[in-house]
Amino acid sequence: MTITGAGESVTGNSVNYDRFQELKSFDESKAGVKGLVDAGITKIPRIFVRQPEDLAGDGHNSGDPTNTQITIPVIDLSDIVSRRADKVAGVRRAAEEVGFFQVVNHGIAERVLEDMLEAARGFHELPKEVKTDYYTRELMRKVKYVSNFDLYESRFANWRDTLFCVMGPEPLDPQELPLVCRDITIEYSKQVYKLGITLFELLSEALGLKPDHLRGLDCAKGHLLLSHYYPACPEPELTLGTTKHSDPDFLTILLQDHIGGLQVLYRNDYIDVPPVPGALVVNIGDLLQLISNDRFKSVEHRVLANQLGPRASVACFFTPHLHPSTMIYGPIKELLSEDSPPVYRETSLQDFIAYYDGKGLDGNSALTHFKLQR
User: Among 13, 288, 291, 367, whose CB has the most other CB atoms within 10 angstroms?
Assistant: First the structure.
């Protein structure tokens, strides 16, 4: 595998730098970012290098003193029956103001969380020749390993590899999952799905709707597990683990390890989402912002590259994704009034995903494309 360093080019002349060829070389290696680290690189390849203004931009460090006091809300679900109104109010505030919150006492045993993270690391640390069987950019493959789903669309590659598993709505054949993470992925999938149902009920009530309203719109019909792996980076100041983006789903539940690096864009500043032992991070997705007519916020977030590592995380995306559906999504009628007209046009899930994937993680929200012109 021939990959050029940050200060080099294919021909030795930066004017003649062939970015596509370098992307192709990286992709065809099927070794991902982990393969670069295993090769002992000390300079990151040029496809990962960002301009200083891109790294420091997006309003980062705008100096708003009020932001230094902001922390991501933590919601305790242990007494959800006896203090339901309080939980609904907490979820409403978090979903409307920050778009992110953490949940504790959520019912998933700490052993399951630890085993899931260990299995995620275990897959990415398999020998290359074992992992390459799963490496593909085939759209409809239910289990696949890939580095940068938008490698050829984005301006910069991210310092991250991913194992992508479609766990529903159709049951996944366990034999399709890598043995190293098979049993725990199935167990975690079942438990995180149950938690998702609870959260959708709270979110429905937070909108003033019946608890089963969002479920009735198929918001919980399907879910994907994305096991991300961020190797230690020799030049973290030159790149990002994940570009600024919002999620193309209804809801995301994230399991992150102790390394940290996740940041949320809040009032033009990045706020850290610190690892809390036993907690899961929850964030509103683009589709929930769309159907809530901007009541709930799908906020942009990113992951920093780090010399520490590897960092592992497992994101559960609640969305039917590419499963055939005739459902059309637009602002929920019960939320509309003369004072609150629809902000977005209706769209199918397939059209939304096609637009999101087609543009890649370019730092711009896909929701803008679906806004009604006024």
Answer: 288
Across the strands, what pairs with 348?
328
DSSP symbols for 141-177: -SEEEES-TTTTTSSS--S-EEEEEE-SSSPPPGGGS
Does residue 251 surpass a pLDDT of 90?
yes
CB 147 within 8 A of CB 32: yes
> What is the C-alpha separation between 308 and 323, in angstroms, rounded?
38
101 strand-pairing partners: 282
Task: Report the alpha-carbon distance of residue 115 to residue 108 in Å, rounded.
Answer: 12
* Whole-number Cα distances in Å, 338 to 52, 266, 332: 45, 29, 14
Please tell me the CATH superfamily of domain 14-370, with its number.
B-lactam Antibiotic, Isopenicillin N Synthase; Chain (2.60.120.330)
For the stretch 349-371, pLDDT in tens is 999 999 988 887 777 889 999 99
The closest of 155, 124, 162 to 317, measured between CA atoms, is: 162
Contacts of 91 by beta carbon, 8 Å cutoff, 6+ apart: 75, 101, 199, 202, 203, 206
- Are 102 and 276 contacting, i.e. CB atoms less than 8 angstroms apart? yes
Residue linked to tokens 């409403």 = 92
Dist CA 230 CA 160 (whole Å): 5
Q: How confident is the model at residue 134 (pLDDT cuts 50, 70, 90)?
A: very high
Tokens linked to 365? 């929200």
Structure tokens, 18: 């062939």
DSSP labels, 109-126:
-HHHHHHHHHHHHHHHTS
Cα–Cα distances (Å) from 362 to 54, 151, 347, in that order, read 11, 11, 21
Residue 45, both tokens: 């390849």
